[in-house]
Write a structure and sequence with these properties.
The chain is of the alpha+beta class and about 400 residues long. The protein has helices at about 10-20, 35-50, 115-130, 155-160, 210-230, 270-290, 315-325, 340-345, 370-385; strands at about 55-60, 65-70, 80-85, 100-105, 105-110, 140-145, 165-170, 180, 185-195, 195-200, 230, 235, 240-245, 255, 255-265, 295, 300-305, 305-310, 330-335, 350-355, 370. Helices cover about 30% and strands about 25% of the residues.
Length: about 400
């Protein structure tokens, strides 16, 4: 049975409500036991009932992308619409995170802003295109991807699959602004190593936590002024941040190791290798000045390039034309965070990032999205596909 055609307004909010109610916490986060599997099943069923060609693309055990294609006879070009299915943990929201609530023109729940608003809007646009393909000049490929919130392995798997794509719109909360540039990142662990001893006689040991506490300010002094001096006109300066620290095994044992996880945001055009080389040089200087600090940097566990799409790219022009047609205006911006667009851009696909919601509401304890932005995004996605 096909999906019945509904007004875009009611369809977009109905879909968003359904999607928010489905648990899709990324397994990297606490509580992520099922991953994206239930949302993937919902999306695949919806696209199948639209009459699209649908397939599951395995990425990780039990976690698959959903790829759906609307084919247009005689079309030689294809536009990709991508939105990720995973969310961060429900911890801040508790069970209410899976109880979508609509009030005063907003919809609240985990993933309502990041990224199920874009997902619902894209599905709504697909429905409109499938029911009325007249005038559509390109094939439309829809990707519901896994793992964006951790290492973007869903987007990477699709980008490496050999699919022929001529332009991509990546759904993220951009306040309906056209994002043509954003930062990338490289993430790694750094550890200090000491010697364990009984805490009743700590002088017999070498406290790795004390080492780390001494090391961090030295590296900040060496690196942060340099990073602050570099800036991209649309995304701002390069940054680094220590987001996680672990050390020790018991309160009565001097810890022999302490580990931090570091997130270095890359400017468009910066490479992970260059950023790590700069860190290594700073660590080496610390070692020379304070040889008692025993420091080791691990190889990175994640790296994503930045994005810098030329303004005259066909996909930028199509999206901007759609924004002007639907909203009467179009604003081109850059953002400091990273997205799946990096993976597609690395494969040679020109990308823009666009969607409903404000990133300041993503991952928060009261995550919400304005419903009128979701409806507008659905219309803009549809119009952009027709303009491409």
């Amino acid at each position: 049975m096909e999906v019945a055609e509904r007004p875009i307004q009611s369809e977009a909010i109905r879909l968003l409500t359904d999607l928010v109610a489905i648990d899709s916490v990324n397994p990297y986060f606490p509580g992520g036991t099922r991953g994206e599997s239930d949302v993937a099943a919902y999306v695949a069923d919806y696209c199948s009932r639209l009459g699209l060609d649908v397939r599951q693309q395995p990425v990780l055990p039990g976690r698959s992308n959903v790829v759906a294609e609307l084919k247009v006879p005689g079309a030689s070009r294809a536009i990709l619409l991508d939105s990720h299915m995973d969310t961060v943990s429900l911890d801040q929201m508790g069970p209410d995170g899976l109880r979508p609530r609509s009030r005063n023109g907003t919809l609240t729940g985990r993933g309502s802003c990041d990224d199920k608003a874009s997902l619902a809007a894209m599905l709504t646009a697909l429905s409109a295109l499938a029911h009325d393909p007249a005038g559509l000049r390109c094939n439309v490929v829809f990707l519901a991807s896994v793992d964006e919130e951790y290492l973007m392995r869903g987007a990477e798997t699709f980008a490496r699959s050999g699919a022929t794509i001529d332009g991509a719109i990546v759904g993220e909360p951009t306040r309906l602004e056209v994002v043509v540039a954003h930062k990338g990142f490289v993430r790694w662990k750094m550890r200090t190593e000491g010697k364990s001893a009984h805490s009743s006689n700590p002088s017999l040991g070498d406290n790795a936590i004390y080492q780390m506490a001494e090391l961090i300010p030295l590296l900040r002094q060496a690196l942060e002024p340099r990073l602050a001096a570099r800036a991209h006109p649309l995304v701002g300066p390069a940054t680094w941040s220590i987001g996680k620290i672990t050390g020790g095994s018991s309160v009565n044992i001097v810890p022999e190791t302490c580990t931090v996880e570091i997130d270095r945001r890359l400017l468009p055009g910066e490479t992970a290798s260059a950023a790590l080389a700069e860190v290594d040089a700073a660590i080496e200087n610390v070692r020379r000045e304070r040889p008692h600090l025993n420091v080791r940097r691990d190889e990175p566990f994640g790296a994503v390039s930045g994005l810098d799409t030329p303004a005259d790219s066909a996909v930028v022009r199509a999206l901007e034309a759609a924004c002007r047609a639907i909203r009467g205006e179009s604003k081109r911006v850059g953002v400091p965070y990273g997205t799946n667009a990096s993976k597609f851009a690395d494969a040679g696909i020109r990308c823009v990032v666009f969607g409903p919601g404000d990133v300041s509401q993503a991952h928060t304890a009261d995550e919400f999205v304005a419903e009128d932005q979701v409806i507008a995004a659905a219309r803009i996605y549809e119009r952009a596909a027709r303009e491409f």
